[in-house]
Design goal:
Blueprint: H1 6-33, H2 47-54, H3 60-63, H4 91-105, H5 112-133, H6 135-145, H7 152-155, H8 169-184, H9 188-215, H10 218-245
Helix pairs in contact: 4-5, 5-6, 6-10, 8-10, 9-10
């Protein structure tokens, strides 16, 4: 078998090198056109896993959602509003965080357009704090988050609601009896006993609201909020009796 000439060998290697170069470029071009592995549709064993995975990243709509009062106090209310968090709050912890926020947002610490923004932020913080600190106002606010708006006439029993409109018969009788007892009271000790009993009613109502908001029973929570409003009004009547009774019932104490 004859040996190939040096020139033929050289031409062969040049052609082979060109072939390798073209093959490499063609492979790289084909690979670049293929989709990245993470862009391929993912398969999930069930819809629950799909939901949990896709919810990990907030959507644009969620990122633009306005902050609630609870979002302003992440330290004292880390779980947020019910049902994830409790209806009850720690007033001391809330006030501590409130003062910290107000110190940062105080308008006197800012100038120009930043001062105007600070004033708006300070007003927002004040409103959120006052609302969350008061159980009745907190209940009304939570209802509003669920689309149920309540006026003060509905949630705080006043002269217009003394007629019993919208009340069940049992609650109406209980409220009327308490009011008669307040009017008939002759001593501070009697009023103090009534206040203690009324505080227990308010506490029971707040416990019930915690259960209802956790359960998502908004209609029942609305009714319980109305009930709490009556006990708040009774408490105000007892306070007013004490103020008006100073000096005229001392002989009974």
């Amino acid at each position: 078998m004859s040996r190939a000439s040096p020139r033929a060998t050289s031409l062969f290697y040049l052609a082979f090198q060109k072939y390798l170069t073209l093959s490499t470029l063609r492979h790289a071009h084909t690979k670049a056109r293929q989709p990245w592995p993470h862009t391929a549709p993912q398969r999930y064993p069930n819809d629950r896993m799909r939901y949990a995975t896709t919810r990990a990243v907030p959507t644009q709509k969620e990122s633009l959602r306005p902050q609630s009062h609870y979002d302003l106090f992440p330290s004292s209310l880390p779980s947020g509003a019910p049902p994830s968090g409790s209806f009850h709050i720690d007033p001391l912890a809330l006030r501590k965080e409130f003062l910290q926020l107000q110190a940062k947002a105080h308008p006197d610490r800012h100038q120009g357009i930043d001062k105007a923004k600070a004033e708006a932020a300070s007003a927002r913080i004040n409103d959120a704090y006052r609302t969350l600190l008061n159980p009745l106002a907190r209940a009304r606010y939570l209802l509003s988050l669920s689309g149920v708006e309540m006026s003060e006439d509905e949630s705080i029993a006043g002269s217009a609601s003394d007629s019993g409109e919208g009340m069940d018969a049992e609650l109406l009788m209980e409220v009327m009896e308490v009011r008669e007892e307040i009017e008939a009271a002759e001593s501070r000790s009697e009023v103090e006993d009534m206040k203690a009993a009324n505080n227990e009613r308010k506490k029971a109502s707040e416990e019930r609201l915690d259960e209802l908001f956790h359960a998502g029973d908004i209609e029942a929570a609305r009714e319980e909020t109305v009930k709490l409003g009556y006990w708040v009004n009774v408490g105000t009547a007892l306070d007013n009796w004490e103020k008006a009774g100073d000096g005229r019932v001392s002989e009974h104490d």
